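INFO  loader      accepted 1 record
INFO  loader      residues=240
INFO  predictor   begin
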Amino acid sequence: MKEIIVCLHGFGEDHRVWDDFIPAYTWPFPVVSPDYAGWEDCQNMSEYAQKIALDLPKDHSWHLIGHSMGGYVALALAKEFPQQVKSVVMLNSTAMPDSEEKKVNRDKTIEFIQKMGTRAFIGPFVPNLFSKDFVQQNPELIKSLVIRYQELPASGLVAASLAMRDRAAGLDLLASTTIPFLFIHGEMDTIVPWEDVEKAVSMSSIHQVNCIPHVGHQAAYEAPNEVYLAIYSFLNSVHV
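INFO  predictor   done
INFO  writer      dumping C-alpha cells
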C-alpha cells in the first residue's frame, strides 16, 4: 500500500505552519497538510478526525505528524482509522486531557476571543509558544507569524477551544494500539508537561520519545534539524 505523511496543525495556526518546515527537507512520502483552522462545525476531536479523513486517500497508509492540537486530532484519527494509520508523531503534544485548571483557562480564552476577536488574542498568544530566548532573538519571525494568524476566524478558534477542553485521555489507546507513536518534546515547553509525555510513552514499549533541549512549544521552528532527523529516523523504523 502507498504511504503519505499527513501534517496536522495546532491551535492558533493553520496549514501554513508546515510551509515553514516541510519544504526545507526531503521526505520519504508525499506530504499533505489539511487546514481546519476555520471549521466551526466540529464539536470534538472525533468529528475533526472524521471530516479530515474524508479528503485523505483510503488506498494509502497514513503517517501522521500532529503539532499540539494536531496531536489530539492524530490520536482521534488513530482511534477511528487504525487500519489506515501506520505511525503517529506527537510534536509538542500530549495524550492527557485538560486538567481542571486548563479547562478554566480554555473558558477564559473562549470568552476573550468572543469579546475581543482573533487579532487581540493572537498578538500575545504566539510569543508564548516559543522559548523566551528564541523570541528575543527572532523578533521578525514572531511578528510575521502574528500577522499571518491574526485573521484566523474567531469561530474556528472557539470551536477548537471547546473540542480541546472536552477531549478525553488517549492513554488507553496508547496502551492497546499496535501503531507506534513518537513524542517530540521541547525542554522549555510550558504548555505540555514533561511528566505527561513520560506517562504516555510508558504505556507501551513500541512508543518513543525525543526531548530537545532549550526549545519551547514550537520545536519545528526552534530546532528544525533535530525535529526532522527525529521524524525521518522514526519513519524509517516503521517503514517495513
